[in-house]
Structure formats: C-alpha cells, structure tokens
## 1
Amino acid sequence: MSRALLIQLARLGDLVQSLPVLTALHSANPEQALDLLCPSPLVALGELFPCVERVFPWKGEQWHELATKRMTDCEQLLVQAKQNLSDCDFPMYSLAYNLNNHPRGILAGHVLSDRVVGPGELGPLNQTLPAWAGYLRQVAHDRGSNRVHLADAFCGLCQVFPPSDIPFVKAPVVPLPLELERLVYGESSTVIGIVLGAGDADRRIPLSVWQDLVAACAELIPESYLLLIGGAGEREAALALENRLPATYLNRVVNGCGKTSLPELVSILNRCQWVVGSDTGPLHLGAMCGARAIGWYFSRARVHETGPYGIGHYVWQHQGGQPRESLDGHEAKTAGSSSAYWPVMETVHLMREEQVDSTTNEWDLWTSHRDEWGAFYTRDDEPEETVLRRKDTWKRLSQLGNQDFKVEVSR
Amino acid sequence: MDVLKQNVGILRHQDQVLAAQILQVPGGTLSLQTAKSGMPTALVNSRYLHSAYDPVREAECWAEERMKDCQAGETLVVLGVGLLYHVQALRRVLSHDHVIMVVVPDLSELADCVSVRSLEGWGEQVVWVAGSMTDMVARVTQNAKRVRILSYEPAAEVHHAAYEHFRLQLQDRLSQQLSGALHIMVVGPIYGGSLPVARYVVNALEALGHRVSWVDHSPHYAGYQNLDTIRDQRLRLTVQQRMSETLSVISLAHVAEDPPDLVLALSQAPLTMAVLEQMRRKKVLTAMWFVENFRHLTYWQQMVTGYDFWFVMQQAACLDAFRKAGASQVSYLPLAAEPAIHQPMTLTPRELHEFGADVSFLGAGYRNRRHILPSLVGHGWTFKLWGNEWDTPGALEAVLQRGGARIDTPTSVKIFNATSVNINLHSYTGEGFDPEGDGVNPRTFELASCGAFQVVDARTLLPALFDESMMAVITSPEHLLSTVQTYLHEPARRMAMAESSRKRVLEAHTYVHRMKTLLGAVGMASPDRLGAILQGERHAVSLLARSEKSPELIPILKQFPQTDRVELVDVAKNIRKKGPEGKLNREELLILMMDEYRQEKRDFL
C-alpha cells in the first residue's frame, strides 16, 4: 500500500485549517495511507484527526540546536542530522503534500519523498510556485476580492476539491482536571468558550472587552458557563480577568488557561455550544469540534480567508485596520476602554439567536456557509458576485496545476 | 619482583633515559602515608596531594568530571604527578584513542611515586614527558595537534611555577602552528585609551588572516558626550548607563546577524552582564583584553564572570585578584605597538619647528606628573609638555603646548620622532612613582616602535619586555633630571638604545604578536572549539580526510580550495549554486535544512 505524507509545519491555527484537506485527500484516495508531519508540540492534536494514520513530530528545536552547535564541523553535523532523522523512523513515502511555502517545509518534503506536491514541487531549489501557492501569496500580498477559504486553497494546493463533509474532531476519552470535568460532564447548560490568547500580540482582545462580554453573557444567557481558554501564556491574563469580575459572576466562570493538554482542550471544546475569540487556533479548533464560533476579526485577520470553517459560524470583521484601543497586550486601559467599540452586546444577541444588524459601528457581521467549492461567508445571507466566482478560480487554477500529480480536477 | 623494579621496566620500554634517571634520583619529595582505605597517600609541606581516606575514589571522581569535556582526537596533557591515582583513573575512563601525556617537572617526585604505586596495566598506555622545559614542550607539540590540558591541582600546585612556564611555552609553540582562520568580532569602547588599541587589534587580526567584524562604538561618542548637558549628576549617570546598555544590545544584534567564533572586547566596551550571559547561552565565546590598571579601574569585578577569557596587562596580584573574583581563565598579556602607525619618520622643517624639543612629555595631567615634571623646567634645553587635563598647570604653564588640547595619534608620532629625550611616566594618583607599579603602558611600546629614545619609570614587568640597553629606566623621581642631562649629551648612545628598542618591538611586541598569544591561549583552553579551527581542522582538506562517515560530502568539499575554512554555511551556499533545476541528494537537503535553522535569530535579543 502506498503512503502519502501531508506536511504542515506552521502553528495550531494552520494545522486545524489543514483538516479539510486531510479529509479530502482521504476521500479522494481511501486506499492510500495518509500520515501527517507537524510541529512536535502539536502531535497530540494531529493524532485526533480522522483519516490520519500516523503523526510524525517535526522537532524544530532539535534542528535549531544542531544547526547552531559551534563545536561541530559540517561532517559531524550531517552525521547527527541523519541520526536524528533515522530516530524518527519515517517510512518511505510515494508522495509528500507540502502546505508550507518556506524552505523547511519544502526541504522536509524532498527529504521524505521523491515526489512533492505543493510549494517546492518543481524541485527543492526551484522557487516557481504552483498555481494555488501563487494564488495564496497574491492574496496575502494584495488582499484582493478573493473568496476561496485558506482551508480550501490547501485542498487546491494538493490537487483535490474541498471535502464533501465538514471534518469533525471527536472528543477523546481523557481525564480532566476536576473543575473542568464538572463542566464537561455536568448538568446540561450552555458552555461558552472564551479564547483569551492569540499568537500575535496584535490579535489580542483587551481584557476590558472580555470583562464586558463575560458580564453580559452571565446576565443575559441563563444557565451559561464561561470557560476561559488559553495556554500557559494566558494564565496571568485569565487571573486578571477573574479579579476584575464581580463576585456574583465568578461561579459562572471556569478558568482553563494553562491547565489543559491539546486532547483535553478538544474534549472541552466538544462540550462548548459557542466559542468566541479573535482569529486564533483554539477558535478554529472549537469550530472543528462542533461549537459554533463567533470571531472578532481585526488587524490582518480576514474573514474570507481564515474565518472558522463550516456552517453557522459568525465573524465580526472590523472595517478598518485595528480598532483604536490598543491591542498590544492585556493591560487594561481605563481611559481608553470606552473609546473603541467592540460588538459585545451584538455577540450576546447572536448567541441568544436574536436579530442583529449586519453593520455596527465599523464592524460587519458575516455568516459562514458551504457549497461544493468550499466554505464562504456572506453578509445578510446574500452571496456576492465574488462568491459565485470561486468556481472560475478553481477551474483556472486547476488547469494551471501540475498535470503529473493531478488527482481530481472535474466536478 | 618489587614495585620499583617492575615500574622501571615499564618506563624503560618507553623511555630508557627516563628509566635510568629514576633509579638515580634520591626521591624524598613526597611524604608517604597510608590512607584509611589502606592505599598509600602523599603529602608535600604537610598538604595532602590525595585523599587521606580513599585516594582511588577521589581520583575516579576527578577523572569522571574531566572526561565530560574530552573530545575525540584530543591529546590530554596532565599536569600534576603525586601518586598518579588521577592518571590511572583517567586512563581507565577514556578510550584508547585518547593519548594521555603526563608532564613530569621533578623526577624525584616520580621516583617517590613509582616506588610505591604500580604502573602495571595502565602506565604502559601513558606517555611520560620529562626533561628540560623546551624538550617537554617539543615532545608535546611534535606528537599532538589538539591539546587539552588537565590539571590535577593538589599535585600541580607543588610545581606551580614550572607548570605555568610549561603552559606558556606550550601556548607559544602551539600559537606558531596556527593555520586556521576564525571569525572574530572586536567590540571597542565608545571613547578613551582603549579605542586606538581596538583599532590595532583589528588590524593585527586581519593581518593574521582572520575574518574580523569590528563593532565600533566610537561614532556614538558625540551622542554620549552630549549627555553632559544633563546637569543633574544622578540623572546623567542613569542616562549614560541606559545608553551603554543600548549599545550593548546593538553589539548583541551584530552577533546575532553574523555569529562569530569569538567576541573580543577591549576595556570599556559597552557589554553588559545580561548581554554577555545571552552570548554564553548562544554558545559564543567571549574574551576581554583589559588594558587598564586593575587597581585603578575596578569595574572588572562586576564583569569578571561574564567573559570566558580575560587578558590583563599585569601579573601576580592582578591574576590572583581576577581568579579570586571568579574569572575562569585569566592570562597576562602586555600591551604592544602597531609599527605601521608608530614608526620612525622624517619631519618637515615646519613640523620640526612645532614638535621638536630636547625633552618632551606627552600624557594627561595626573598628580604624580604634575609633581615631578616641573623639575624639568628652566634648564638650558627646550622642554615641551603635550596632552590634556592640565588645567591650572602652575609652573608647567610656559611649556604646555596647544593650550592642553588632546593630542591625536598621528601628532603623537611626530612628537616622539622630533624629541631627543622622551619622558614616559606611568600615571599614578600619588606624588612620586607608583610603589605598586607593575604593568607597562602603551606609550613605552609606542615610543620604542617609533625608534624614539625614552626615560621611563621602573615597572616590575618592564625588564621582561625591554632591557636597560633599550631605554633609560629610573627608579625614583630624583633621578629624572640627572638622567635627562646625561642622555641629552649622548646622542649616539640614545640612538643606539632607541634602535634596539624598536628592534625588540618588531621581534616581540607588536599587536600581531599579542593576538597570536591571545588566540593561542584561547585555542589551548578550548581545544574542541576554537583550538580545532585554529589548527586548521575546518579546512577543506582536513574535512575531506575525515568524511568517511559521509562520503556524499566528498564531491562538495572538493569544490573548495584545500586551505579554505569550510563551514555549514559555505557548503549550503555551494549547494544552492546548483540553481532551480538542481537535483539534490538527501545529504544536500539535510545541509540546507540545517542552514535554514542556523539562520534563525529567534530568542537572540
């Protein structure tokens, strides 16, 4: 049986956005075993992905450590590099799908397989991009009127159409910390995940805004519990948020920041009805775990490229760049917190299934849908012309694709 | 068979002369006792060289600790004999690829040892190095390329002076064999006396074939000086401190961009402890050449653990002070001259008119100079005083030139050349000569390098650098006037002495000599890192010879000139030259992968 490998060496959000292409590749060729190569800290999540047979860690730290050894000559480095690789026990791959347009992904693809699809498919030193990779780069650069979602563009990159079913990450059976266990397995109630952190500082939402949202949810959504989600880096912010909240709300807030592994996070997100946050990995993971996501997109985040994947998610897209309030950290700005508008109440209304205006103070509301060309977002449920043009994009880019590796192009 | 007889047989097998000598020396250096474990132990001057309880276990611990640093291909040179438990333990823990040499400065000590401790089973696999100092050094350098010195301190201390001498000679000999080129980053000060030294160091290292990156902070001097406009002293000091910290981070950014093998800082270089610690975390070796009087400028005490290597211009008390303060490696390295700058020259009549004098002094107005120099005023010769910090000069006002302006290097060379008798008084904050005066100032070397005659105050370290046939050395201020008078009337003698002093500079006291010594010391202390590179082990030819485990590298390495230093970055660059259509094998791909990670600058700043 032939084996293929999908390479995704980027961060959590990108790995989650790679789930549709894994699903699509598996559907297109169910006989072919499909493995995943991802950063070692994310392996535990990759192992929960359906259709992935084996997950291999990419040990960036180990490579860095080796490459910056100062007492070792080139030959010794090479011997050690070969040893490190052999310790991972990679099988032979007939095909490597590379989703990363950077040298590490490209080189990893060529080290592990003779045939690479995606960036680097014309050779490890050939910088000519495949059509879909060129499209993604152009989108990142020009911010045009594209409507093809990143997760679907990954499918295009791998020469498959978007999956017919929306992928879903099931909750693993894992023991949870007591307070989280009560929430997950306790009485039925509405659990709202609040994604506090963000990898990039400019995507962080001020604590004062979270404070307003938590208070509004506690007041207006009966029987709701607010679950604070984040890594160890968000511990302090979560504690600061808890300190800001009136004591009456505290029994409605569960602080999970820095307390969960990735499988535990998946387990918790499976229990959430809603998950709210900026364009971050946990928000996307929440969407893949069955929660409905409400994203607050600002700075460089664009709903059409990286909105939560699937149906029934919402994104508040800021019309300009950054809102006026500083987004450079969690510090409260007593004077500035009222100077910028955040769609807090509108978000609560959405969770209460109430009517909301699609444009509110520089924020536009977008709703997610899906068709045979993948996920897309509309305002007022009206597909724009650009949404309808996705089919043309698919046809054009598929025709430009590498004919040698073409798996499926017609639909 | 008794132990001595058996041991002599073992030694004879390797060195007949040594074996014969052992039988002839009287012994008695070591006082022998029985340890609690029943094994013999030894004392010298009532100090134990080995444990009084269990010398075997103690030696095993010592050997296991040392073994962690030892790398393949190194020759281990052990200093310290005693009863050789440590050597036996070392031989046991190391593979047979490692050559172990034991330096024996005193045959009597070895004779004591071999009369009670058997060499059987391990002594045959040790190289015994005895004889004159020159012979011992030659024996090591002839047989070993990459040397790691292991000192068993309790026993080495007994012959401290001999071992220090051995170390220096070995270092000197090894530094003559260096062929590899390093990338050295020189970090200079913002201003001050060590700034020109930094320039000379850069020139010398380049002349030796090393790649030098100079982090020159002198362009920031104007900004630093401008901080003097802040009147509040505490505020000004705080801002100056912050500026130094910023310059330190700038130095770190340069290191991050192009990591050197060694960062060499000159005194007053703005490198903070935090930045030095970060460099250590990033595995960059650091050295400081402290060209200051350690008693006058004491900031080194706060920095002493920050640098991997210290080089100082004073000996004994200075070395002790640094070691006590926590310096891991500290060595004596006197100042020097740059003969391309400080050289004899012919002056124009106009220059002779301005700079010429029978007697001159060039330097800042330290207290001792203000006290001593007036004795030279008002005689039948011309006396000129040059330099700054001479406000309220008193009796010296009439001879002070250019209103006490700072004199730059080219002008100083003209002054030295145009003066019959140059006075060189080392700075001191007291009234006479510094009673602790040891280190020799740069002026001594610079005057000599110009072929200019000088009268200099005595320094304890001067005789090892220049002798009295090269300059007039005075031991007290009272001798100054008479010495000047004497030499003013003996131009031929002056010229001959000055000539000899210049010759000595060219032979032994240029910055090129100093940098050779410095790199020799650094290389010997880190044989697996800088030592290996300095010995040429990163040359293409050397890598080729060792590429048996990765034969795929051979065609790549053959593309380089044989004596070029080849690093990962160079190999990667060559692979990339294959261009877009290039087909790469697995090894080439892995090299490119490592090169990608090598370029990562995360966490550096």
## 2
Amino acid sequence: MEIDRADGRTPNQLRPLSCSRNILHRAHGSASWSQGDTKVLAAVYGPKAGTKKNENPEKACIEVIWKPKTGQIGKPEREFEMILKRTLQSICILTVNPNTTTSIIVQVVHDDGALLPCAINAACAALVDAGIPMKHLAVAICCCVAETGYVILDPTKLEEQKMKAFAYLVFPNSILSVLPEVSSPAKGEPVEHGIITSITHGAMSVDDYFLCLERGRAASAKLSDFLRRSLQSQFSGNSSKAG
Amino acid sequence: MAAKPGTASTTYSPVDPTHKTKPSIFTDSDWVRPDSRGFHQCRPAFFRTGAVNSASGSAYAEFGNTKVIVSVFGPRESKKAMMYSDIGRLNCNISYTTFATPVRGQGSDNKEYSSMLHKALEGAIILESFPKTTVDVFALVLESGGSDLPVVISCASLALADAGIMMYDLVTSVSVSCLGKNLLIDPILEEESCQDGSLMIACMPSRYEVTQLTVTGELSAPNLSEAMQLCLDACAKLAQIMRSCLKEAASAAAEE
Amino acid sequence: MGLPNASEDLSSEMEVDAFRRLFPLRYFERHLTESIRPDARPLRKARDTTIALGAVASADGSALAKIGSTTMLAAIKMEVMTPSLESPDEGCIAIDFHMPPICSPIVRPGRPAEAAPVLSKQLSDTITSSGMINLKELSLVSGKAAWMAYLDIYCLDADGALFDAALLSAVAAFSHLKIPVVSLDYDGKIVIMSEEQKEENSETKPVNKEKRKLTLSTIPFSLTCILHKSYILADPTAEEESIMETLVTVVLDSSGQLVSLYKPGGSVLVYTSAVQDCVALTRQRVKELQNILDDAISGMEID
C-alpha cells in the first residue's frame, strides 16, 4: 500500500483547507473555499419572489449558475449545475419559503482537481452565510482509485488524470442536535454515513467503491469539523450580518 | 472519448465514386423504378396509433423507408404571450433526426414543412371545439425516404384522431413527381432528387375537399390534371387504410 | 405537505383517479405498504424490455430499445476524420442525446429539455469509462484517417428511467454496427468500395478488410432505482420519478465491475445496506439485459 504522491501527502491526507465567508458585498451570502490550489467562489442571491417555470411553487426553488474559469458553459458544466442543484435541494428546507427562488452562482477561480466537491463545500458555506434554512450541512470529498486498488483522497488534477477511477461523495455533516436524540434512520448507522450524492467516473470493482465510501466517511468527519469551526469562528467574529 | 467541438466540422462521410451516373437512367423510355413499383403504384403503407404514451394522441407511419412519428399534445393552455382567442390554436413542428438523411444532418427543425403541415391540417380541424387553448402537433422524421411531407400530414391527422381532436374528416396526402414524360406517384428520395416538377395534394377524401395543393417545378397542363386525379384516387385509398387502423385500435381498446 | 388528516377523511369517499392526482404521495404509499405498484409490478421488478436492431436503414448501426413505454432510438453514422496528433491511431466517438418535442408534454420546440445535455454527458462518460469500445479499432490509416462514430440517441417516449433505456439502445446500436468497406483513393480521401470493386480485386485495396465489426469487450448495463423511506423501487415510471425524487443509477458491466454509481442529491440518504441492495438488483438486471441483447443479436443473424 505504499505510494508516493507528488506533493508528499499520505493517501488519506487532505490538502490545506481554507474557507472565508462574507467576501462579496452585493450578494446576500458568499463564501470562498479552497483545497490546495483548487479554489471556488460561491455567491447566493435570494430568496427572490416566484419560481421558475416547471418548478413546484409549493416549495422554494434553487437555481445554480456555474461560471467556468474561462470559456463558455458546456455539457460538463451543465451536469455540474444539475448535480449541485439536486444536492443543495436535498440539504435545504424548501418548505419554509415556498414560491421563491434562491440563486447560487459558482465561480471557478482555479481548478486543480476535486473541483465539484470544492464547489459543493463553497456553496454550502455561502448558503449558511446567506441564512438560508438548512436541514444540515454537507461535506463533499473526492476519492481516487488507482490501478493497484489503493485509494487516495482529495487528488490534484494530475493525480485525477492518472487514476483509473474516482468518486465524488457528499455526506451530511454530523448533527449536533439540540433536541434529545433524533431517531436514527437505518439500522444503527449514524446520519453522517448516509450518502447525499455519489458520482463516479471510470470502472472500479464494487469492493473498491465500498473502500472509497469508508475512507470518504472518515475524511468527511475532519472536513465537517473544519467547516463547523470556520463557520462558528466567523459568526462570533462578525455577528453583524446574521440572516 | 467525447467529441471535441472543433472536430465536428472536419469529418466527412465517405461516398461511393461509382454511384454518380443515375440521372441518365431516368431519361430512358423503358426504365423501372428503383424499388420496381409501377409508376402509379404507392409504396405499402403502415400505420399504428398510440406510439407515444406520454402524448394525448400519437401515430407512427412507415412508407417504405420513410418513417415518421407524430405526437399530439393538448388541447392545453396557450402560451402566456398569446392574445385571447375565441377559437383554438394549432401549433405544428416538424424536425428531422440527425441520421434521417443519407448524409448526417444537424437534426434541426424544418420551418417550411412546419408551416405547410399547419396549413394542411388547419382546414380540417374544428378549432371552435377548443376555444382559448392550443393543440400541439409535433412530428419527428426518423428516416427520410422520400415523400416525407405527405406522410407526415397523413400521420398527423391520424394522431389528431387518436387524441380525440374534433375534425371534419381525416386529412390524407400524396405527392406525384414528374420525370420527363412520366408521372410517378409516392416518389422515393432518389426519384425526388431528379424530378422536373412535383405536385402534392392534401385532402379530406370523404368530403372531396382539398386542404392544400402545392405545385413546384415544371408540369404541363394535361400532366397537372392527370397528376391531380392520381393523387385524389390515392388519397381515397389511403383514407381507407387509416380508417381501418383507427377501427382496429378502437376495437382493441374495447376488448380490454 | 399539508393535510394528512384531510386526505385520510376524503380518501374513503373519493374516486381513485382523483385521489391519485390530489394526494399522489399517499396514493403511492398505500400501494407500497402492500408491496405492489400502481402498474401491478412488485417493487423490485423492472418493466418489460425489448430491443429491435436495425431500425433505421440510413444509419450504419441502429437499435430501438423499449423499457415499458420509455422508447429510445439510437443510430450510429460513421464519418471519416483526421486523427489527432496525440493519438494518431485512434478513432473517436461522439455521443449526443436528444429529447425532441414528441417525447413528452414538457419539451417544447426551440427550447431543449434541461435533462438532455446532462444525460448526454452521463452517457458518454459511462461508455468511455466502461472501456466497451477500443478506439484503436476505429483507426483506418494511422495518422491519416480514422472513423468518427456519431451516436445519436433520440427519446421517442419519455416514461421514466431514461438513462437505462438510452444506455441500452446505445450498446445495442454498437453491437449492430457494421462498418462499411472503404479504400483510399488517389487524393488521399476515403471512399466507399462498391460491390464490383470488391469482387474484381482491382488495384484499390480496402483499408479495413477485417475491422468490419467492433469487438465489444465489456458491455455496461444500468438500473435506476427510487429510494423512498426504506423501500427500493426498481425501474421507475415518469409518474413515480416526479413524486419520489431520490434516484440511484447503478451501472455494472458484464464482468461485474462498477462503472458508475450515480446519485445526484435527493432527500433520502443512502446507507451501505441500500447501496448493496441496489448493486445486487443491478447484477440481476445485467443478466436479464444481456440475455435480451443476445437474443436480439442472434435473431438478426438468422435473417
């Protein structure tokens, strides 16, 4: 299981994380999230009145606009938009603001691997910043499977291209419940082990996928700690902009 | 590997260089049609209603290699921008698949055919029966084998009947190509490409009324009247086939 | 949302169709507790599936796949391109998924459906990462000419599980694909060889005598399931998809490798056990689909 990563990380080690909120003045909420050299900016506008066509007006509508670093938006970006939209829909409480639209604009600043997970984390922080009601936070992680079957986390662009397969996984943040013991849904597994979103590329064995899941869950605990800490510290830092 | 946008325009489909001499065949006096039909013989027609379950009504038609599907939606709410209207609206659209034609196309909408379909059907539909609303007739040509528009028109009227839209009569349509001295009914793609003139009639056979008549190219006056009669006779026969298709579908539904 | 008690009271005196429209979720849940679906299927059973090969004569390979009433028509047209410098002896595949206005009341002409580009991307990702097609087999003259296979998939009738049907029609079209015999002419262009030329052994030699069919090494098949509470429903219809929105699509290839596990959000979280269940269901489905495809191919060979 010995592998060398170009930047000298161990397989389970993530790149340095950083997150800052409230970086844009015009937006209702904004955040930037970076993992190593991959950096994404997210801005939230809304909730605005009315939903788009073909959307259920009894619920809040979420709209995601993906802005690539350069060039026009193509099929891959459309897919990212759809995945982000569906992921965010599942973590937001949509019944609080029915018949409204919340727009999330995702600007890619730099792509050095694990772009979609980075964007999901940024969007999630920005939603918190905008005060959109949410069930829980979400943390996203990218797991790569190499030819020989070992798994590395949070790959750079170069590593992503070399690997035979990778999976983007999104898990809920562990819930620090104020209510006494929310009933655990499935067979004793904690909530944070449930998959919100799973996207895979490349062929791998089913066992490899479960290995990814296991590693991803372990790493997501660290990520969610970081997310919670950075959100809390900034809330105490500038409590002027709540809601 | 996914398509790179730049590469799309640089590809070409290989052609057969030995296959360029065909127009000369048609000028001979005793040639036979490529599918060995008689000049005044239509291709075998096949119709089936209920091809698309998610539509209010639909039909599939196959004439030789010409294959089309027509779906009818509605009557449903008109577009917001539309003015109030006492009578219903008809909205038609014909598009081709990218692989419908021998050379790969763009699969775009055919505006000209769409408006011709609209005009051919408009006269037969009782628009007063669905005021303020719109009926959408969408056609997709899966494979183009000649006489596409007449097939779409006949198929569309069958789909409208399947959707239960009130009509005065079924609309059937047939075209005739003029090649030299000969009149060819229900031409295939090869024949259409080297025709001198053509005539297309859409009519309501039971009422003996024409809803649309189109003449293009060169047609002498005696040829024109002969071609019209040929088309009208063929339309009447086509209507029988379509009627029996509807009856079959109705009796099958009654059995269930 | 809203009125669970009201629906309880009304349901006893309401007509079934009205109840289905007004309280779709409750209507479905009533069925689920009886382990049956409104179309009389057991929860984990897929709809009847058929494949017809060679549906379009103007294409080099084509197939019509039907899962229940979801219908997909896939056709491949082969064109010639100059291969890129990085891979001089590889061809290319371009996959496009279309939702024409005939397929569903939601799609209107001039306004392409939102789902279409996403599904196109998903299909080409799946076909690429399954390694089903060896792009080297699409090479004609190294560095000079290679095949560009344009695969266009049209949805003729949209009634749920669009990805499954589209993938099935795509692999069926590839297994039906017959590459035309071509030769290189004096201008360095690729031309089709006519029947006479092949027989009389003229100076022009076909460049692809052997490579008439693609060897499909591992074929990917997929199954979409709906997760609702602890129920798993295989192969959903459009109505089911609109009511219960957590979808999981598993793609396995014929050798049992996981090609894709696709779950874009949804209100239900998936735990390990549910993933295992979905994979197991897909394993069964792969066998079924493989048989259906084999039958279709052997049926073609008899003709």
## 3
Amino acid sequence: MTTDGQAAKGPRDAANWAANRERLEVNSDAREYGYNVDGMRVAGPQQGFGRLWQRTFWVDLGPAVTPQALIADWRAHFGDFWPRMGRFHGAVSGIAPGDVAALEVGLPTGTGPALATGVLVLYADDTSFSFMTPEGHMFAAMITFSGESVTTGTRAQIRMLIRTSDPLFELGWPFIKRGEADFWKGTLANLAASHGVAGATVEEETECLDPARLWKNWRNIRHNSGIRSAWHIVTSR
Amino acid sequence: MTATMTVTRLAPGVLAIAIAGDLTAASEQELMAAHEHATDDGAQLVVLDFTGLEYMNSGGIGMLVTLLVRSQRRQQRLVAVGLSDHYRQIFELTRLDEAIGLHTDTAAALASLP
C-alpha cells in the first residue's frame, strides 16, 4: 500500500504526490473549520463552471535565498504569510503531500463572517508545492507555489489554473478576480519582506485559456461554499 | 532532464504523442509543439503514450490540463495509454481520467473507437 509522502520503491516522484482518495477529510486539528470540505471530492479546472484562466503572480527576491530555502520556509509557515483577510488551518508540521487543510476567507479587515473551504496538498517537493480545491470552493483549481532560479537570484511564484466553480461565483468574478489578486500579491509581499526584501514589486499576468463556460457543471452550485457558510453561521448561533 | 516528444501517425485522423523522460513545466514548448504537429496532420484523436514516462511533477499535470482544453476547443479526443499504476492513480486523484480516457496500450485505445 502506498501512503502519502512514502514510497519505498517506484518512480522518483512517488513520495511527492498525495495518495489517491475518493473523498476529502480535513486534518484532525482543523475539523471545526472543515464543514465545507469533509466528504467532498477534489475539483480541478475541468470540473468547474466559468471561463478558464491562468494567473501568475511573482516577486524577485534576489540572491539572498535559494529556491530550496524559500520553499522550505513557505511550506513551514504557509498561513503566516497570508493577509489578514484569510486564515489557513493546516497541519502544524507544515505543507505535506496528502494534507487536507481548512481555510477561511473574509473581509480585508480580518473581521466579520468568513467563507469556509479548504485545499488538498496535491504535490510537494523541495522547490514547489501544489494545491487542488474541493467541490464548493469558489474556484475549481490547481495552484502551484514555486521557487524559481532566475538571473537575478530567486523568484517566488504562484501560478494557477482556475475556473469559478458555479454560476453564482462566475457572476461575482469581476470582484473575486480583484480580491484574489490583492490576496496573493499581499502574500508574496509578506513572503518577500520576511526574506529581507521590503517594498517588493509583485508582478501579475492573467490569461484566458478558455472563454467557454462549462454549463454541464452548473449544478455545482449545490456545493457553493458561500451559501453553505452563511447557512452554517445562521444555524450555529 | 526534460521530456522528449515523438509524434507518430497511427491511422487517418489518429496520432500518437509518445512522452518519455521527465514531464515538468520545462517541457511545455515541446508538448505544445507536438500537439500542433498532430493537429496540423489532421488529428481527431490524440493518443498520449506515457510508456516512457519516468518522472512528473505538478507542473506536468498542469500542462496536461492545458493540453486537454486545447484539444477540446479543437473537437479532438484525448486518450492516454501506457500509464504505470502510480501515474494512473494521479490521473484518478486529479480527476483527469474523467476527461482523458485511460487505456492499457494503443491497441486497446484504437479498439475503443466507435
């Protein structure tokens, strides 16, 4: 039996991938935030609804840190670099293949009600790690965080393939797009500052890879984490 | 090391892309060029042959998602053959197997054609 992050034999990448599973279960230390994740399946871009976008955010950190040291730090303290609008409830030991973390995204002030969802750590190695989103997340997505070697030193990069999950989130895309950009730019600025690069310029590139909406997946709205989070907040009072 | 791509015509409208070596984001130009070659040759079915695949990271699986979208926009079918158990499980985990048909070998893929 192959277990997460462990494979005595087999391909070189065997230890880097999450083990196959049908349904997700949030890490035991984040169960109270995982009510929109437990029992869900992962949903990649082909299971989403909206247009397909490739978004890339990056910041150059210079020669002070290697890609390996950057990713080791990022994996160990992933949620610490998030802006106040997000809270990441991952394993204390850091990002590892197969982890299922809960997360909350709310207002930029970090106060008030928050949308609860999560991610599966699909892959991790010494220069990158990747997440897949669960059903009901605002995006059906694959997101890769990497440390790249460039001529000036090391570049921290976030690249994602995303579709909004359902028609409701697609309607909100113009606002979600801006909020998401602010979120990841804030994350990279915090990451850069922690490596001694204050006031770093975070670059962004957004490309539409498929303008078609996948109407066959419109029923994804039944898993919408915004609706489910609002219901959870109301019924748990 | 990066992947090498070899395009072979199997039948009218059916082309195979054999992917060998390490499939990472660094292979993007080669993979997309191979797909262009297959498209220019009139492919309606593209068989991705992973028999020689030795390593794949998440950048590699991301490229396959991009390739899938390109194929769908061109009304091409995409199937995969020669996957080891390890890589077959990754296709299942990422639910790529719902859009890319998996077959043991090229003969089985061709036999599945309507």
